[in-house]
Amino acid sequence: MCPPRCPRRSILPPRRRHRPPSAAGALDELVGKRIVFVAGKGGTGKTTVAAAIALLAAKTGKQVLGVEVEPKGDLAGALGSSGASFKPALAQANVSVLALHPEESFHEYLNTFFKVPRLARATPLAKVFDFIATAVPGPRDMLVVGKVAFEERRRDDKGRPAWDLIVVDCSASGHVLAQLNAARSMMQLVRGGMIRSQVEWIDQVISDARRTALVLTALPEEMPVVETVELHDQIVKQRGVRVVACVLNRMIRAPVPPASRRLLAQLTTGDAEVRARVPGIGSIGADLELSERLHRTAEAQAQRLRSGIAVPVIEVPLLATRTGLATTRAVASSLTEQTAAVSP
Ligand SMILES: Nc1ncnc2c1ncn2[C@@H]1O[C@H](COP(=O)(O)OP(=O)(O)O)[C@@H](O)[C@H]1O
Ligand SMILES: [Mg+2]
C-alpha cells in the first residue's frame, strides 16, 4: 500500500487577509521625513532606490545627505559621482554622499562626546578602539545609527538643520536588523551615565515615526518575496523604525494582449521579405509568449508580497538602462508615477 501523500507545502508564508494599502502618497511621506533607511536583500535595488529617493527630495529643494554603509555599496556611483569618503561630498545638486567607515565614525564619536583627540590614534589604546570599531559587530552597528542620528541633529551657523533629509543605503538584509536595533541592544548593557543617555537619544531618533522611516526593496521572485515578508515582520516585531513602503523592483511589464501578440507574430513572419531582412524575426511569437509567462510569474509574486505585508508596494519595472545615474533617474521617475495620487 502506498504511504499517504503529504500535500505539497509552499515555502511561502500563509496569506493574510488585509486590503493592500495604496501606494499613492507613499513617496511624499518618505520625502517628508528626516531619515529614510532603505533595506533589503542584496541585488534588489537598495542602492538605486536610495539614490532615487535622494534625487527626488533634492528636486524639491531639500538638502539631502546619502549615507553609504557598505564599502561596495556605491551610492555615489548611483548618483553619478565617483566614490565617497567620510566627509560629505556633493554628488548632484543638493545631494551629498558620505561613506560610513566604522573606524572614522568611531574617532569622530570619541572626539565629539568624550573629547578624545585624533592624536590618540597613535596610542596603543587606539588599537583597542579600532578593534572595537571594526571587528566587533555591536559597536560597529552602533556607530552607523549614531552617526546618522548625529547628522540629523547637525545644525548650520543659523541654527537650521544641515540636512533636510538623510537617506541611508543599509547593509544587506541579514545584518540590517542588528544595525537598526543597535542602540536598543546597547541600552541593555549600559545602565546609566553619559553613554546611556547618548544611546537612548539615538534610539529615540531611529524609532520616532514622525522623523524616521524605512523602505524595503524586493524582487518579484519567490525567495526574495519570502525574505522580504520575513524581514518586514521582524522589523515590525522590534517596534523600532516604521516601515512606510516596499519597492518591488524589476517588475516584468505585461506585453501586448494575446490577440495583438498573435497578429504581430503573423504580420512579421508572414512576409518572406521581412523574414529575409530581419534575422531572428521568426521567434517573435515565442518571445512574446515568454514575456507573458514571466509577467504572470512576477505578478503572482507581487500578489504574495502585497498580501504578506501591510505597507504599500510600489512597483518599479525592469528597465533597459545602463547602470549608474541613468538607472537611478529612470527608477526615480517610475517611483513618482507609481505613487502619484489617482485623481478623482
Ligand atoms: N528597475 C531596474 N531595472 C534595471 N536595472 C536595475 C533596476 N534597479 C536597479 N538596477 C540595476 O541593478 C543592479 C543592482 O542594483 P543595486 O541598486 O546596486 O542593488 P543593491 O544595492 O540592492 O545590491 C545595478 O546595476 C542597478 O543599476
Ligand atoms: Mg547596494
Secondary structure elements and their pairing?
Elements: H1 26-31, E1 35-40, H2 46-59, E2 64-68, H3 75-78, E3 89-92, E4 95-99, H4 102-114, H5 124-135, H6 137-153, E5 165-172, H7 173-180, H8 182-189, H9 193-207, E6 212-218, H10 222-238, E7 242-251, H11 258-269, H12 272-277, H13 284-308, E8 313-317, H14 325-339
Parallel strand pairs: 1-5, 1-6, 2-4, 2-5, 6-7, 7-8
Antiparallel strand pairs: 3-4
Helix pairs in contact: 2-14, 4-5, 4-6, 5-6, 6-8, 6-9, 8-9, 10-13, 11-13
The chain binds adenosine-5'-diphosphate (ADP) and magnesium ion.
Strand order in the sheet with the most strands: 3-4-2-5-1-6-7-8
Mean pLDDT: 85
**How many separate helices?**
14
Strand content: 5-15%
Class by alpha and beta content:
alpha/beta
Q: What separation lies between the terminal Cα atoms?
A: 63 Å
- Uncertain stretches of 5 or more adjacent residues: none
Order of helices and strands: HEHEHEEHHHEHHHEHEHHHEH
Bound small molecules, by name, code or SMILES, are: adenosine-5'-diphosphate, magnesium ion
Approximate shape? elongated
Rg over CA atoms, rounded to whole Å, is 24 Å
Major β-sheet, in short? 8 strands, mixed
Care to count the β-strands? Answer: 8
In helices, the fraction of residues equals: 40-55%
